[in-house]
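Table S2 (text version). Query chain:
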Amino acid sequence: MTTLKAKLKDDLNAAIRERDELRSSTLRLTITAITKEEVAGTTKRELSDDEVLKVIAKEAKKRREAADAFAKGGRPESAEREKAEGVLLDAYLPKQLSDEELDGIVVAAVEEAKAGGAEGPRAMGAVMKIVNPKVAGQAEGGRVAAAVKRLLAG
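Corresponding structure-token output:
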């Protein structure tokens, strides 16, 4: 068992002992998502810590999107719960890049792409190929794409 998955299970046991319903239900759902990912495909496998982080990031993103949907739908109590679950999951993820840090990386990648001959909005793919490995796990894809579009547009 990977160290991150073991930490999730240990935290789940502690949350159950402390009767923390929010933490225990959130961790249960996350561990279930990890297990589901492990058995997906033709053979069962053990996920690495990086793969477990990707599953946690996906679950946190689901919570943020659900919170927005609930808020727009006029269900503030459900939105608050989803936000709380998202915050709880964010504690297991690496620190996210600030907007300034992300913009700095994107500016360098745009310059690198221009040096390679890619210009304007059509350079989006080339820039994303440069940026994504540098920010993996530290910035959401939509946020990265928005920064790249903004900087390519001028």
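Notes on Table S2: The chain has a mean pLDDT of 86. The longest helix spans residues 49-72.
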